[in-house]
Amino acid sequence: MIRKKILLLGDFSVGKTSLVKRYVDGTFDDKYLTTIGVKISKKLLTLKGVEYELLIWDIEGSTPSKKISLGYYKGASGAIFVADVTRKETIEGIEAHKEVFLSENPDAKFVIAYNKSDKLSEILKEQMELTENSFLTSAKNDENVEALFIKLMENMLS
Amino acid sequence: MKRVTPAISKGISENKETMIDALYPIMGGMISKYVTQAIKEMMETINKKIEQGLSFERVKRKAKSKLTGVSETELLLDESKDARISSLFVIQKESSLLISEAHLENKEIDDAHMVASMASAIKDFINDWVENSDATNEVQLLSYGNATLYIESAGSVFLVAFLDTEPSYEQRIKINTFFASIVKKYATFFQEFDGDDSADEVLTLSMEMEGYIYASQSVANDKKKNPAKFIVVSLALLLLGYGVYLFNGWYIEHTLEKRVFSQTGEEIEISKQDGHFILEGQVGSTDAIYEIAKIMKRQSKESIVNHLSVPMTYLDERFKSVTHLGEGSLSVVEKKLSFLEHNFEQTVNGLQKKIVELEGQVEGSKVYLNKLLKSTTDEMRVLKEEKLALKKVLEVKSEIFSKLDKAFASEVYYNIDNHSLDFRTLTLFAAGNIVYEPKQIVKLSKVFEKYLRILLEYKGYINTIIIEGHTDTSGTKEENMLLSKKRALSVKYYLERLKIVKQYHMQTYLKAVGYGSSKVVLVDGIEDKNASRRIEITFSLKDEKILNKLREMIND
């Protein structure tokens, strides 16, 4: 079994926790997130016959009064940046998260989740400019959640 | 102190983690220089504890100190050595990935990798807070309820020891010394670890840590006081004291009875109650009663309750002889009669007391018999319940055997006689080796998966799935015992990682047992060494212990 640490980063209320909730195989209680600013879950994946276990660090967004330990960012092989597709400022905020993450893990890989896609009309969805590493996701409708994690894993192995 | 040369200084700043890995084993040894100071501080803490403590434990410690002559400080020191290690984790510092783990049997931690990550996160969180508080130390102890995590960092990894209480300074030094030894041995592996736990080092490190846990366990066991032993000794002392008291009473009574007999020829019974001597029995004459009373007064200051009596024939004869003495002697006779009347009353009183006493004893016996009857009824009920449970277990057992026999009818690795998996024809280990052949272990795991699927249908009844390790007769008994245990453990670690095992949370059901060369395979009376180096897998049911007990009872 090969294990990798990955981070889930994004502003408040973008749906990070909901995104992993229906996807994981085991998790700690939510109280840890509010106490120490991180919640750890795990997900088993099999790619090309090899078993992987992702240890997912769901990191709380930092505020001026509550700084998040940089230790949480260290040693991660990948990250998922999450934004709320209905809130522009959260999409713009991804750059800041990316900067901190890559400064600690320059060789790490990442994907982007534009979450809450269930709130967008089909027309707006069509207008979104997506790359191969960005996805419109919906925890509510279970849209692209699995694909998001698999893409990240593939990037990490490439 | 000499200045660090610029080249070394540059080397350290550029490869900090690598340098620490290399230096930690040396620095670990240097810690001993500071032990004297640490012990001094510890003694001060203990003395303070002695002065301030006001608890039952303290009173107990004081009493123990008085009884044994051992100082309270030494007793406190002894108490502070009892932390037991139940698990050890080695975690890569940067990624927080668990590199290797080891546990006491039955103390395995579910989701160890998530626990390791969470422990790292908590450690980082506290360290950040400590740094903000202008302190310089790293967090070393985390306590929650009865659990304590002792954390020691070195270079690219940190060690987490799960203990039942805070470790003493002495124990911390021991753990650090052990940690230093593994950092030295696995430094390169730790730095290059990429999350792949199939590396041989993961297994060998786990075994080393398990060995250390068990070794430290036996030390803790030696030091741990046995409360049952303490109670038994206390009870024995109490009984001894009571025995001495009874013997002393018996000895005095017996001596007085002998003295009375030697001086008067009368055999009477003397007993002591509520500080009085009770005299009982029949003597030949009233003179004897007076004489006995005199002897008693000479021998003891205790008061006497005289229940002695004389035969009515004696009184009759005495009366007749007194009548003959004439009218003048009548008053003397009257006095004598009055005395005898008094004596008779005392005898009657004594008998009444005896009757009351006997009635009390009968009542006590009735209560005891009622209790006995109740407990017998309870036992009968429990036996009936156990009988029903065992009947079910027997049915389940025979059902499992039947399914296994059917499923493995053509399986070469199945032993139909004891319904176990026997891999004697699978050369899993080379002679003297604990590392299994990769291709062979895959074969073993496939057969095991099929076996496990049948057992999973009865998961609620399964107690353990036992992985037995066996060796050939080469080497000493002790070496073979260790080798077989290590072989069983290496197979256990492999099987624990199977998807089906994790999916059904069967890790804690797997137990590794080493039999050494005690059960070798013989072919025509000659040992088949390849077959002897084997793994067998079997299982036990939860209520089998009760079943065995019942069988013993029936045999008895």
How would you briefly describe this protein structure?
The complex is a heterodimer of chains A (about 160) and B (about 550). Chain A is an alpha/beta fold.
Structural class of chain B: alpha+beta
Gap between N and C termini of chain B? 78 Å
Please tally the helical runs of chain A, counting DSSP H or I stretches of 4 or more residues: 5
Strand tally of chain A is 7
Number of helices of chain B: 17
Q: Please, what is the CATH homologous superfamily of chain A? A: P-loop containing nucleotide triphosphate hydrolases
Spatial order of the strands in the main sheet of chain B?
A: 2-1-5-4-3
**Average pLDDT number of chain A:** 84
Q: Which architecture of the largest domain in chain B per CATH?
A: 2-Layer Sandwich
Strand ordering within the main sheet of chain A: 2-3-4-1-5-6-7
Main beta sheet strand tally, sense and closure of chain A: 7 strands, mixed
List how many beta strands of chain B DSSP finds. 15
Helix content, binned percent of chain B: 55-70%
Helix content of chain A: 25-40%
The CATH class label of the largest domain in chain B is Alpha Beta
> In CATH terms, what is the architecture of chain A?
3-Layer(aba) Sandwich
Total separate domains of chain B: 3
What class, by secondary structure content of chain A? alpha/beta
